[in-house]
Amino acid sequence: MNDQVTVPSIALPNQVSFFDRRSDFRRLVFRGALLEFITAGFYRFWLATDIRRHLWSHTSIEGDAPEYTGTAKELFLGFLFAVAILSPIYLVYFLIGLEAERWKAFASTPLAIFYYVFFQFAIYRARRYRVTRTVWRGVRFWMGGSGLSYAWRVALWTLWAAITLGLALPWRQAALERFKMKYTFYGDLAGHFAATGGALFKRGWLLWLATAIMVFSLFGVISIQIDALTATWPFIQLLLLPFIYGAYKAIEWRWWVSGIRFGDVSFESGLRRGAMIGLYWKVIGWVILLTVMLMIWISAAVGIAYLLSDFKDVAPEKLLSVSQQVPVLLVIGVGYVAMVLLTWMVIRIYLIHDVWQRVAKSVTVHNVAAAYNVTTRGSPVGALGEGLAGSLDMGF
Amino acid sequence: MDGQAVYFDGQTNRKRSVVLRIADRIEIVEQDIVVAAWPFDDVRQADGPPTALLRLACTSALPLARLEVADEATKQTIVSHCPLLAAGRGGSQLARIVFWSLAAACSIFGLAAYGVPAVADRLVPFIPQAWENRVGEMVDRQIRFLIRGNACGAPDGQAAFATLVGKLKSAAGIDNAHEPLVLPSKIANAFALPGGKIYVLDGLLEKAQSPDELAGVLAHELGHVKHRDGMRKLIHDGGTSFLIGLLFGDVTGAGAVLFAGRSVLDASYSRDAERDADAFASQTMGKLGRSAAPLGELLLRIPGAQAKGISTILDSHPLTEERLDALKKGQSPVTGNALLSDGEWRALKRICRP
After folding, report:
1. Do B13 and A105 touch (CB under 8 A)?
2. Do B255 and A394 touch (CB under 8 A)?
3. Mean of pLDDT values over A319-342
4. What is B2-86's CATH topology?
């Protein structure tokens, strides 16, 4: 690919490095978004595979880049199987929802819980797929464990975290990571997760307190008389949110990396608290810009159709009937889909590539020598989980 | 020629320094012992770092066995000897992906536009009335939730309303025991739910100037019940959102992307249903010796988009010139008696404000 570029082999022996080729990545996701648009979304399997290949191969652990061996065809097949499995579930879900609504209006809302749990199952299976497609030095990572038993754990822990108003969140994260890492292996080297919920709580409790004060004061503002000063408070809170969330994500990443073990190999991350905040602001800026552009696009479409139309109705009705014309709806639809795809592009650049890059560069590996003579074990699993997760949620 | 390389045998992750002997195949030599030999035709390029490193795999070796070559001359030799290096992780399949995706998209859109309505039409006659009534009850709950407050119950108004609806039902050939209700809402709308239950919102009653205008709207709504349009729409919407959901990977049909596509498809679908319901209204009113033209006059009097909760009857029944013309043409001479006496009509108008 880049034969001209010679890069000195990575300086620090145990420091994970990331070969920064952001412009390549940007080109990759822009081209991907364009192709997603042309192929009515089907290109997403190829794009997801290319993104992973890029990220895996640009990362380097002790001078050797991992290899992503998954293919788009596997993802596509996983998707087809997921559709076959989900179709009857979709129908049953629909009918149960109907019966629940008949009993009481909006009684079908709790069914969303079922979706949430099922989605967790899919996420676990999707992780298994990705892990078994990751190869380093000719030996693959692999993963066992039951997606179902993971899903109900998530459900109970989430419930507990909700009851405790988020205080139990660090212990929830720790328990779930312990479960996942217990079943994750590199060849015959067993993984485990050593970080504790208490450690995460110690680093993050100030953020929890800040959030709690914000929510509390928001209710306070709503219930008391609103004057000019207090009315701006919710707006200020909105501005604070990306700072809080960004800081939390950085803390969580650092804690997570530092908890990972494979045999005697351990990892450590020096990620700064503020490392992510800028990324979230950039995404917010882009989304605002894209939304404004979509609004201009829609107004232009409706406006032009309004001027061209020869309806005899009075103005407001005319506007309504004009905006319901099929060509206008199509133009609006195209603008909307384009905006969604561009938003995904922004997310892929800032929240996937840049987050990956920042986390990867922050990682130090201790005692790599313990992984010098690992024998291959485990086999690749199918991509059904990816298909299910992708069908339940469009995310990466 | 000979070249230096790093070899991973696919069994362990041991990094082995080897010499490559490239003659009629690639021989991997470690301390003068040939540990493996890769035929040129089986050698593939594997995903490697974006540096000058060339990472190789071999289809006839262990799946994860890898060779890493950094030395420029050796790389050149391998590239020139291995014709199928780039096969496998294809880059030239783009045209194929685009073609088949477009074919699939066309097929799905075609199915949504023509297949689903056809299926809905064929399926509806087989749906038991009991199921339809259940759906009606479900919608009933939601309406009562969205429009809070009890139904208006002035006794003489309710009696007049029951008389009017009774006449319409028997003319329309719809037989059920549901009591029609007027709900206290400023919104101008009326519904006939699957199963035949009728709701009129006070806002519509306020706008109506004669019993025939209201009767026209109700006859139109009963037309939807008679044709089971509610069920048809349910199957239709469910099917379309599912199919379009397939495209964007969201099988639940919850994605906002769907709404754009769905409303496009629905707009043309409901227009036919409206025309049929209008014709049914004309017929029913004709049987009672009245005209359905006042229906159009009432709809003309309702202002467009009204916010909050439920939209006006105009939003779901867009009034087109074509519809107005058809209603006027279908107008039969008024031969029968008024559907309600003046006293009854006044009582009905005041049902929410006794």
Report:
1. no
2. yes
3. 79
4. PH-domain like (2.30.29)
